[in-house]
Amino acid sequence: MSNDIQHQNLKFIPTQIAHKYGENVILLSSPLMLSLLAKLGHPSTHQPQINELTQMLYSYLVDQTIDLYFPKKKVVLETRMRDVHTEAEYEGEIIDPEVPVVSVDLARAGTFPSHLCYNKLNYLMNPKHVRQDHFYVARVSDESGQVTGVSVAGSKIGGDVEKAIVLFPDPMGATGSTIVRAYNHYHKQVLGTPRLMVAMHLIITPEYIRKVTKECPDIKIVALRLDRGLSGEEILQTIPGTHINEEKGLNQHQYIVPGAGGLGEILNNSYC
Hints:
Blueprint: E1 25-27, H1 31-40, H2 49-69, E2 72-78, E3 89-95, E4 101-107, H3 111-124, E5 130-141, E6 147-156, E7 165-169, E8 172-173, H4 177-188, E9 196-204, H5 206-215, E10 220-226, H6 233-236, H7 263-268
Parallel strand pairs: 1-10, 4-5, 4-7, 7-9, 8-9, 9-10
Antiparallel strand pairs: 2-3, 5-6
């Protein structure tokens, strides 16, 4: 193939919901994914459907993240038609497979999503440059059920993050405490300066956005759904982010409403 202009300088524009949270927040707009996500959170859905639906949702989420943020390179690659047509080559841009990528397992809700991302990235990228780290983190709550922070029981970090894209595939972005803790750990405790950090969620809340965009100003946030169901009716009729300080998605125990009903527990059939 000759140097066809259509394959040069590829652009990707995601279909997203309009909002006023800033350019680092992407709220994807997909009727198909919202349908699957609604099914995932329905009381009648149990294992093994939980894992299957999570796989479908995160496959889409990582695809969008790759198209949005992964660097590209120009290549000339042979195709099988080269045997009969010497000009049968693809000449254009592809995702640069040599960029290092780290998928971080934020156990426990993030364990399966991180594995899904890690597995898919190994097909696209050079597997030598794809890594999965493990970060064992849990909510810390006071007597009233309010989340006061997170505790880190341990971590297994497989190396530096110099010029790497670091992904945090954590299904529920509720308070933002987990992402802030992980972000700070990689910036302060892990060697190297990452190329980019991306938090990848099924559902996030306005409370999450307020905290994470303030404390992690350079992180990218990609989510399938924003839940602000406890906001007033007038607020629900405004473009998300218009009255961010009046938007509410967390109940008194800081679980997401509508939410998905404790996805960490449901994914693992573990309720303690």
